[in-house]
Fold this sequence. Notes:
Layout: H1 2-5, H2 9-29, H3 36-47, H4 53-66, E1 71-74, E2 79-82
Antiparallel strand pairs: 1-2
Helix pairs in contact: 2-3, 2-4
Amino acid sequence: MEACMKTSTRSKGNYLMFERIHLIEEILREGYYPNANTIQKKLKEEMGFEYSIPTIWRDVQFIKERLNCPVEYDPHQKGYYWK
C-alpha cells in the first residue's frame, strides 16, 4: 500500500511540465503578442519557478508542432500569437 502512495520525482516533473505547457497555451491565447521574456515572467508569477528562455522556446515549439496548435511568431509585434 505504501508503494502506491509514493510519487516519484519523474511524476512530479511531468505534472509540472504539463502545467507549464497549459499555462503557456493560455498566455498565447490572450492575444497580446507575448515574447519569451513575457512568458517567463508570467510562469514565475503563476508557478513560482523560473524557467529558461530556451525551455520556453522548446515549449512553444512543442505546442505548435506536437500539439498542432496554430501558434505563430510576428516579427513586427516581436511576440507570439494564436492564429
